[in-house]
């Protein structure tokens, strides 16, 4: 007799998330610039903490993450009791959808927003809703116009992935203050550290009861392989999320390495300064070659071509030279390629290949 085991309605409608390509068949010298990873890797303090962690693999981690939460609070000037740690900021996003949205509810996000927003919404049984952007930038008026009585969550990545654009704090404040009382605003700050003077929305969280901030160690700190994220929000939100979080969701290794990375000022300073310098250099080279870019506030550049066909052809040229970038048609941008800002050698290789490709298009 055939089984009659069925998933909950809507689960099989979820489009699987596909990460950036990591390999090119037939060659072992490929350079991966598809996942916005720090080209310098993790800092030495984090590496040393990782080596030490091997001595305690038999020990269970703490359930309250007190050490890392205290370190985050001291580093950013936050209230440790309102910090939650997760398996990447993805897990915090999942908790938010599980805790505050379900069947009959809507989760609103910006047109070219992170793909985990609709995935997590649908996994919770809620309906994802996209609001249009203005020139690939979050449009606060469009978000407010899309809010209904069914809206429970609004996700805004600032800076946004994959566009690299961002909106000022004044616009985020206008959004938070314009939402109806049942709606929680989530500010995804995965790339917040790359913006000088930007707190990712932390002050907004402290001033309001309807704002949550998510952050990650995957980008600036070079710990994508360990999956460590965190969130900061009002006490009433944290009370919900901590009831959904597994007691041992982060290992001793994750906790210790993240805390060490947070204190590695030299690595942070180098990573930020080199990213800013090479991001601007690469954008200028692409623009000079006839490839449009918006100003990026993150650690990648969105290269926009004349058509989807031209973007596909340029991607093929990059692959032929061993360079892996990210095609972003799944984000509604088939005419674009997202290029991680690598080290100087990587950026020069990318610029050279795209220069050569565009010369052949004339």
Strand content: 15-25%
| Averaged pLDDT | 95
Give the fraction of residues assigned to helices.
Answer: 25-40%
**CA-CA gap between termini:** 64 Å
Structural class: alpha/beta
CATH class of the largest domain: Alpha Beta
**What do we call the CATH topology of the largest domain?**
Aspartate Aminotransferase, domain 2
Briefly, what is this?
The chain has 362 residues and is of the alpha/beta class. The protein is built from twelve helices and 13 strands.
Name its key features.
362 residues; alpha/beta; Aspartate Aminotransferase, domain 1; Aspartate Aminotransferase, domain 2; 2 domains; 13 strands
Describe this structure in words.
The structure is a single chain. The chain has helices spanning 44-53, 66-76, 88-100, 116-123, 140-146, 169-178, 202-207, 235-244, 252-262, 265-288, 308-320, 344-361, and strands at 31-32, 83-86, 106-110, 127-131, 151-157, 184-188, 211-216, 229-232, 292-293, 300-304, 323-324, 326-328, 333-340. The relative contact order is 0.17. The protein has two domains: 11-42 and 266-361, Alpha-Beta Complex (Aspartate Aminotransferase, domain 1); 44-262, Type I PLP-dependent aspartate aminotransferase-like (Major domain) (Aspartate Aminotransferase, domain 2). Strand 12 and strand 13 form a beta hairpin. The radius of gyration is 21 Å and the shape is globular. Helix 3 (88-100) crosses helix 4 and helix 5 (140-146) packs parallel to helix 6 (169-178). It is built from twelve helices and 13 strands. By secondary structure, it is of the alpha/beta class. The strands form three sheets. The protein has a seven-stranded mixed beta sheet with strand order 2-8-7-6-5-3-4, sandwiched between helices. Helix content is 39%, strand content 16%. The model has no long low-confidence stretch (mean pLDDT 95).
């Amino acid at each position: 007799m055939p089984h009659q085991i069925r998933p909950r309605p809507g689960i099989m409608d979820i489009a699987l998330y596909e990460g950036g390509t990591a390999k090119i068949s037939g060659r072992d010298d490929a350079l991966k610039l598809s996942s916005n990873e720090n080209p310098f890797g993790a800092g030495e303090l984090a590496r040393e903490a990782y080596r030490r962690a091997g001595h305690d693999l038999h020990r269970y981690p703490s359930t309250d993450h007190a050490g890392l939460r205290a370190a985050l609070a001291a580093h950013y000037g936050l209230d440790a009791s309102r910090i939650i740690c997760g398996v990447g900021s993805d897990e915090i996003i999942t908790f938010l959808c599980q805790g505050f949205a379900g069947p009959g509810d809507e989760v609103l996000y910006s047109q070219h927003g992170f793909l985990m927003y609709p995935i997590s919404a649908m996994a919770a049984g809620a309906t994802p809703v996209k609001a249009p952007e203005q020139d690939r930038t979050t449009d606060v008026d469009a978000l407010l116009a899309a809010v209904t009585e069914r809206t429970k969550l609004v996700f805004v990545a600032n800076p946004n992935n994959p566009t690299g654009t961002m909106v000022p704090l004044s616009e985020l404040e206008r959004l938070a203050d314009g939402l109806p009382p049942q709606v929680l605003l989530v500010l995804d700050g995965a790339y917040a550290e790359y913006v000088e003077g930007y707190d990712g929305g932390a002050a907004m969280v402290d001033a309001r009861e309807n704002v949550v901030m998510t952050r990650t160690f995957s980008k600036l700190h070079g710990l994508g392989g360990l999956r460590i994220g965190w969130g900061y929000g009002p006490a009433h939100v944290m009370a919900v999320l901590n009831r959904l979080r597994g007691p041992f969701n982060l290992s001793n290794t994750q906790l210790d390495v993240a805390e060490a990375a947070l204190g590695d000022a030299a690595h942070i300073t180098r990573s930020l300064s080199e990213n800013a310098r090479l991001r601007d250099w690469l954008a200028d080279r692409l623009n000079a070659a006839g490839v449009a870019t918006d100003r990026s506030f993150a650690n990648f550049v969105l290269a926009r071509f004349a058509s989807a066909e031209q973007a596909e052809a340029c991607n093929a040229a990059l692959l032929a030279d061993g360079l892996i970038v990210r095609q972003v048609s799944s984000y509604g941008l088939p005419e674009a390629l997202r290029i991680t800002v690598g080290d100087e050698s990587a950026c020069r290789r990318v610029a050279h290949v795209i220069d050569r490709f565009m010369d052949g298009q004339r």
